[in-house]
Amino acid sequence: MKLTTVLRLISLAVVLLLFSACVMPDKVNDMQQDLSDIRAELQKLQQGQNDARDRMQALEQTSDNSEMVTKADLADMTVGISQISRDVAIVDERINDMGRRFDRLSRQVQQAREMNRSGMYGAPIPAGGPDDGSGDPSGAIAAGAIAGAAAGGAASSGAVPDPEQLYNTAYADFSKGNYALAVSGFDEYHEKFAGSALADNAIYWVGECHFSQGNFADAVQAFDRLLELYPSSDKAPASNLKKGLAYLEQNQVGKAIVQLRFVVSEYPGSDEAKIARDKLTSLGAQP
Questions:
Q1: What's this model's pTM, rounded to 2 decimal places?
Q2: Residue 33: inside a domain
Q3: First-to-last CA distance in the chain?
Q4: Nearest residue to 7 (alpha-carbon basis) of 137, 95, 70, 94
Q5: 244 in a structural domain
Q6: pLDDT tens-digit profile of 69-100?
Q7: Which residues contact 102 (CB under 8 A, 6 or more apart)?
Q8: Is the dihedral of CA 104, 105, 110, 113 positive or negative?
């Protein structure tokens, strides 16, 4: 599914939610801001893809008029394509994160409505009803209290952090470049929720944090940890690819070639295999 299609669906869902309930407006506003940020990132990605296509066409024209295209040209192109693929993966994860947040917000809205109807917090609050004597004719204050109770009930116990909030906070830190905070958050998430569906993702993003900081040895260690604990993870192809790229960054060319060839043979047909194959070609090595 195209990223833009998913983004439109989530945008529509947020708008519908905004008009269907008067609860948790701060969270809806946060999601709308995230949507704005993701749209901007998608525009940058589109421009990057257009630039890469233009450069590829220029190289093809060059190859038609000369003996060969230099390895430097191919290497530059491969780096650009790898970066675009990585950026797409990050935006894709942010969109998935938006979907998870919207699902959670929808559940909280439903919970608040059920509490309101059952009179758990007193008499049901009519939408736009009469003044209850508090100076709040619309009942917005009471509705806000219900929303706060619905959203913060688990957190008020102080026992175990909410897994979704912990993961989302860590990912938000990663997106903003706050890598140390992101690593801490993802590590805490995996420590407390190692059996969850996103536990492998948490370790993967720890590796991405280290990679983005230039801590390539630590990145390899994180990717190895993911592959050891979750060998069937959907992040396994990307982890193996990033290992190879991290070896290259450390000038361990031999290990990088072995790793990239493993990606090609183990995950044929994948985007990661294509990137690995292009990288091997730029290094003058056979895939």
A1: 0.52
A2: yes
A3: 29
A4: 95
A5: no
A6: 565 566 666 666 666 666 666 666 666 666 66
A7: 10, 13, 14, 17, 31
A8: positive
